[in-house]
Amino acid sequence: MIGEFSKSGVIIGLLSSGVRLSTPFLLASIGEMFSQRSGVYNLGVEGIMNLGAFISFFIALKTSNPYFGIFVTILIGLVMGLVTAFINVTMKAEQGISGIGIYFFGYGLSGLLFRLTLGSIVTTSGFEPLSIPILSKLPFIGEVFFNQNWMVYLALLLVPISYIILFRTTFGLKVRAVGENPHAADTLGVSVAKIRYICIVIGVVLAALAGSFLTIGQIEATFVDNIAAGRGFIAIALVYFGRWRPSGILWGSFLFSFIDALQLRIQVLGTKIPYEYAVMTPYVITILVLSFLAGRAKGPSALGKPFEREST
Amino acid sequence: MTRVLKKELFNSLVINLFVPLGAVALALLIGAIFLKFSNVNPFDAYKSIFFESFGTRYGITETIVKATPLILVGSGICIAFRSGNINIGGEGQMIVGAILSTVVALNLPGFPKYFLLPLVLISGFLGGGIYGFIPGFLKSYLNVNEILSTVMLNAIALQILYLLLRGPLMDPKEIAYGTGYPQSARITESSWLSKLIPGTRLHAGIFIALITAVIVYLLLWKTTIGYRMRAVGKNPVASRYGGINVKVYLTLSMFLAGGLAGLAGAVEVCGIHHRLMDGISAGYGFSGIVAALFGRLHPIGNIPASFFFGALLVGVNMLQRSVNVPGSIVYVIEGLVVIFVVGTEIISRKILAKKVSTTIEKVE
Q: Would you call B144 an interface residue with chain A, using a CB distance cutoff of 8 Å?
């Protein structure tokens, strides 16, 4: 009897940490989905995540208020988003390469600022879990989904919200049109540049918030160099995995983060399996999943192509 | 006639020299702001970077030592990017090349140098090549985005390196003394690249790098294979209608790019460390991309670009030691250079377009 109980406790713990771990993926992937739906890759997500993680941590530490951290991170995200959009849309840069530049920049800058301002590992308090009345009392589901902090709820809510925006609004129609056939959209009077600017900024702000979650999204927040640790790139892979749809991204993020939660649990249990295998597994699985699924997935037709009006 | 020629020369100078140099100047300017924040006088910092890297014997040799892997990785990047593969996997390919070359060197200690050294270097090339082949194959035949797969493969290669260095490849001495530092045993001296100047780290690898750059240039511009790879990179659909097997050339270019990164890994092992160790790739796999882009994806242009970034690495190392500037600033400056180089490409294109239209006017 007691054995049974503790076993279900382990499973609940595993699932609830899986839901928690899916948050940064969901935030960054849904943002990247908007960007790619409008026809622009943003491969700088990893760098933006690192930068967002540092900024929100630093502000939360200095003001003792994590909400200020979120506020400043959004501002920085807006600025970085506009810069990214300027490079990719206005300057029509090769997106695969400009993204690497943004990745280097964000990664380097977060490390640089960390060394200059803090220099050593310190902690501050992040967001506490917010139990949702009634729902959190539900057996099993309550513990897994409704006993998390507000960023987790935000990420989960973004799935239906982004679905509605993308498939049920005029704006979403324009986004998809610009990503599929920018010339047709342009002929109909849709500003390709404006839509792409908006989508890129959405993507970068969400990527920065995904970074925030890695620091102040934890009860005890801390920052270490390269805190995103590849999550930004995995978030991009999840967009492919989810075939540019919010629901697909949700399942991909869950699958991935449950494996991650399991991997962490196995490490804690201290089995004989070397630690390196555990770290490697999510990457191996991502490659395998992409190999089996990518062939059938088809992204927005104009993805990666800068828009140029044909001159007559 | 001479005026037209002069104008063309001027235009190509603007495109190939001034635009990238302007981009670097802008990047250094923004870098200066960050240096200012680090309480370092940016002017003094850049001056000492320059004098340290080009003015002293130590600086010059170290710049060459750091330019060597950059030239090799960058030459591979030229092949990959020109063929339409955005290969971010230089780090992983370097690591696998270093692993394979070390394993070969450790297991064949009794052979003479003229046999063993080339064998070890070729093993490095093959190791990196196989590791580049994987994303190439996945892209061509299974439609897996190569940017993502190479990033994942970098992370996997790093873990494989740790696994080996903490396991089967760990130096028996480290185990015996109980220090457990993650490094392999020293490879036999007959697999070392010769030192060029005693008392410095300068080794013969620079010649391998320079020769490789020339070979890559010849391959890309003077052979059918190179022509086809570039055609595939420019326009895969037209290439297929033209009868080129696009998938084969995409995969081949990734194999070659990975191979050259792997060779860089082998050269680092045979030329400097003489063993496999943690941090063997030292970020060259990434910096090589920046150098290649800065060299306009031309293997010969990549050579001065690699010296430039090699010098930057030496200079920043020095700043890190003397005035405590965090090493991360290298990534900030490199990121800015990439952003500015690709961001200003449109200006070069506009100048080119203008040139074409003026030529047409003249003909008319």
A: yes
Q: Assess B170–A contact: CB distance below 8 Å, yes or no.
A: no
Instruction: Provide the pLDDT confidence category of residue A28 given band limits of 50, 70 and 90.
Output: very high
**B197 with B246, same domain?**
yes
What average pLDDT does the segment A180-195 reach? 93
What is the interface pTM, i.e. ipTM, of the complex? 0.87
Residue in B37, B148, B321 with CA at minimum distance from that of residue A29? B148
User: How many Å lie between the alpha carbon of A6 and the closest alpha carbon of chain B?
Assistant: 33
Q: Which residues of B touch A111 (CB under 8 A)?
A: 326, 328, 331
Closest CA to B71 of B273, B299, B314, B266: B299
Residue written as token pair 């928690």: A20
* Euclidean distance between the first and the last CA atom of chain A, given in angstroms as a whole number: 79
Q: Quick one: average pLDDT of A78-86?
A: 96
Asked if B16 and B77 sit in the same domain, the reply is no
pLDDT in tens, B57-87: 888 999 999 999 999 999 999 999 999 998 9
At the second CATH level, the architecture of A2-293 is Orthogonal Bundle (1.10)
- Tell me the one-letter amino acid at B312: L
Cα A63-A64-A66 angle, rounded to 5 deg? 95
Distance CA A2, CA B124 (A): 56
